[in-house]
Amino acid sequence: MTHELIIAGFGGQGVLSMGQLLVRAGLLENKEVSWLPSYGPEMRGGSANCSVIISDEPVVAPIVTDASCLMAMNRPSLEKFENSVVPGGMIFVNSSLVDIKVSRDDVQAYYIPCNEIAAKLGNSKVAGNIMLGAFIALTKAVSIENVMTSLSYTLKNKQHLLGVNRQALEAGAQLI
C-alpha cells in the first residue's frame, strides 16, 4: 500500500514535524519513505507544507502531485491543495481554523477540531498530533507506537512532553 500525503499549514503548526514523524515511523516499520519540505522564508506564520510518501514499494520520486491524502491545518492550505487529492482520496481539515467545507464530493472529508482538543489537553502545540492520530487510525499507514518512538527521539531533551503528545495522538484516533 502506498500513501502519498500533502501536509500543509502555516509555520509554527508543526506541519514539517508531522511529516518527519510519519517518515521515521515508516522507517521503523521497514517501509519505503520520502519527506520533501517546502516553506517560505518566514519562521512562523508563513506557509509551510511537505510531501510525504509511505510505501511498501520503492519510492520513485519524492514530489506528491496526486495525493491520496491532504491534511490541511488552515484555510489557505485547504484552498491551495484540495484539488491535488485524487478522487476517492481523503482530506483531513483542522475545523478549529478552517471555516469552510471541502467543496468536492469525490473525496472523503474529515473535520478534526485540532486546536480545540489541544487546548483541552493544555498544550496548543500538539494540534498536529491530533490530526496525525486521526490519519493513523483511519489508514493504519504506520502504528501510533512507532510514532511515539519517533517522538521520543525528536523530544530527547523534552521527555516530559511525551505524555501530552500520546494523549493528542489517542484523542485524534478516537475521533475516527
- Spans of at least 5 consecutive residues with low confidence: none
Helical fraction: 25-40%
Total strands: 6
Q: In terms of structural class, how would the helical and strand content be classed?
A: alpha/beta
Distance between the ends: 20 Å
SSE string, helices as H and strands as E: EHEEEHEEHHHH
Largest sheet: 6 strands, mixed
Care to describe what's here?
38% of the residues lie in helices and 27% in strands. The radius of gyration is 15 Å and the shape is globular. The chain is α/β, with parallel strands linked by helices and 176 residues long. The protein starts with a strand and ends with a helix. Strands 2-3-1-4-5-6 form a six-stranded mixed beta sheet, with helices on both faces. The longest helix has 14 residues, at 15-28. Helix 1 crosses helix 5 (144-154) and helix 5 (144-154) packs antiparallel against helix 6 (162-174). The protein has helices at residues 15-28, 75-81, 114-121, 127-139, 144-154, 162-174; strands at 2-10, 32-39, 47-55, 67-72, 85-94, 108-112.
